[in-house]
Amino acid sequence: MTAPLVIGSVAYSPNVVPIWEGLRDYFAETTTPIDFVLFSNYGRQVDALISGSLDLAWNTNLAWVRTVAQTDGACRALASRDTDLIFKTVFVARSGSGFTSLESLRGRRLVLGSRDSAQAAILPIHFLREAGLSEGDVSLTRIDSDVGKHGDTGRSELDALRAVLDDRADAAAIGVNTWQAIGRGELLPGAFESFWTSPEYSHCTFTAMPSLTVERADPWVANLLAMDWTNPQHRPIMEMEGLQAWVPPRLEGYASLVAAVSEQRIAPRW
């Protein structure tokens, strides 16, 4: 009998358990069974992957970039969600505020999410610099309300939006998933408008070390990609995990975060 592949994931919300139980049940019917281990933060998870305690880790983009740095590029990305390939950062302000571009932030107050959130803290600084704005040109407030989870909970982004509504900031940088929730009316409907959206970049990916052989990895990836949105048994898991298809990773989509981590001298280890 094939030993299960052990996969690490960070427990950023109560939904994580049913997602992984559903995935475990799905893979139990394939040639590549799995089990999972939950972590409280990505630092512990990456350490476990590199030490060999895990076969795979479900990593954020920052966890991927840091794993690459810590392994001198020896790790490899195996698969992502379709939604991971088109992630964006959205800059928002109160409706009617008159912001039209990143240049509108000059001399104004911008609130960022947790310092380890790529979408709500690290990449926004990178995009500001690309637009010719230094940190001295914009008054920055950082809200570190879910450090360790790389912004997965969305809590710091919600706290940032509240800071704008409370007039403690003029604008906020948030992930596109939070912005889409606002657009669907799930969060603060009508309270905000977007004034700049970043280019697409890559987010989460399954990460493996060289110790996971191609002979074990490739069949598992094939079974993962075979999950079908139209299959009523697969769809609930995919809905909870926020995708319609598993896809190969887009490694070039990490270039902006690699540049941002280097520019901001973010340490490769926690």
Number of strands: 11
Whole-number radius of gyration? 19 Å
* Major sheet strand order: 2-1-3-10-4-11
Fold-level CATH name of the largest domain: D-Maltodextrin-Binding Protein, domain 2
Number of domains: 2
Largest sheet: 6 strands, mixed
Task: Give helix and strand order, one letter per element, not per position.
Answer: EHEHEHEEEHEHEHEEHHEH
Quote the distance from N terminus to C terminus: 38 Å
**Overall pLDDT metric:** 94
Total count of helical runs of at least 4 residues:
9
Name of the CATH homologous superfamily of the largest domain = Periplasmic binding protein-like II
Structural class: alpha/beta
CATH domain class of the largest domain:
Alpha Beta
Reported CATH architecture of the largest domain: 3-Layer(aba) Sandwich
The residue fraction in helices comes out at 25-40%
Query: What is the 3D form?
Result: globular
Fraction of residues in β-strands: 15-25%
Question: Uncertain regions: pLDDT < 50 for 5+ in a row?
Answer: none
Protein name: Phosphate ABC transporter substrate-binding protein
Pfam family, one: Phosphonate-bd
Organism: Cryobacterium cryoconiti
